[in-house]
Amino acid sequence: MNKLLHLLQDGRFHSGRELGNALGVSRGSVWKYLRDIEEEFDVELHRVRGRGYRLKNPLSLFSRELLEPGLRLLNWHLHLYDSLDSTNAEALRLLQAQTAIPLVVLAEAQTAGRGRRGRTWVSPAAQNLYLSLAYRITGGMQQLSGLSLVAGLAVKDALHRIGIAGVGLKWPNDVYVGGKKIAGVLLELTGDPADICHVVIGVGINVNMLFSDDDIDQPWTSLRAQQGSLIDRNKLVLQLGESLHSHLQRHAELGFAEMRLEWEACHIWQGRECALSTASRQVNGVVLGVDDQGALRLLVDGHEQVFSGGELSLRLAT
Q1: Binning pLDDT at 50, 70 and 90, where does residue 212 land?
Q2: Which fold has domain 269-316?
Q3: For site-directed labelling of 236, which of 29, 65, 227, 251 has its Cα 20 to 30 A away?
Q4: Where in the chain is the domain with CATH 3.30.930.10?
């Protein structure tokens, strides 16, 4: 991220001379860089004669110095970027280049962030969390069953540990607070799922975003909206890393069957009548839970049916 933005992220006034000395440039150059920052990162600056410049709203920017030691303890290799098309796409490219794994891709902004079913994931700069974890799986389908649901549990646990109350999950990979979406998970695979493959777990969390210039097609909230104050995104990344590491380790050792009841206890639509949309039809039924592979169990016309797949969408019937 731009060094000048790092200097301004505290939201306090900084004189042009102070900023110029820190950057080794003239005050005129500082003024030009400030204009570029406003345009590139969509931030608003206040300028006061005799006091200098400050951001209208303080930011929490990612810091390699703060993140690398904690992620190194998990044996994860950090790849940190100012901007990417998509952290999942970059993780897949790094896998293709045979980069050391497990690896974490983290970006301040995404220009083509994506969710499930080809949807766009709104990704403003320096506000939210866009993270992808890539690692190797050798246990075949057993190690893939219910994996997206386990990742959702890990996100829920991380948010709970930083003080967010009332976090719930929606099958298969959405995280909600107070009936509004706050995070999502996107899994992508490369290789042979029945033998040896690599999985990329993408996590998007609304952190400090309070409004969006983009249309979002469902009610949403953010950690800052819930807590009423700026969230330290570096602490969040480290907490999420610890939670993902422990939950994925449990899943590798025990399988999803041992975590199924824990997931069902968090499902916000458990026991409710829902509509499940597939590529060709819509099925209405009451949510019974999930099976040992993470597939959705619905009571349809008095009979239980099981559904799984990446192109399914679950909504309340009302």
Answers
A1: low
A2: SH3 type barrels. (2.30.30)
A3: 251
A4: 64-263
* CATH 3.50.50.60 fits domain 64-263: no
Note whether 294 and 149 are within 8 A (CB).
yes
Structure tokens at 49: 């004669």
Please indicate whether residue 181 is annotated as part of the active site.
yes
116 belongs to the catalytic site:
yes
Q: Is the peptide bond before 172 cis (omega within 30 degrees of 0)?
A: yes
Catalytic residue among 114, 116, 170, 233: 116
Q: Choosing from 181, 235, 250, 297, which is the catalytic residue?
A: 181
Full-model pTM = 0.91
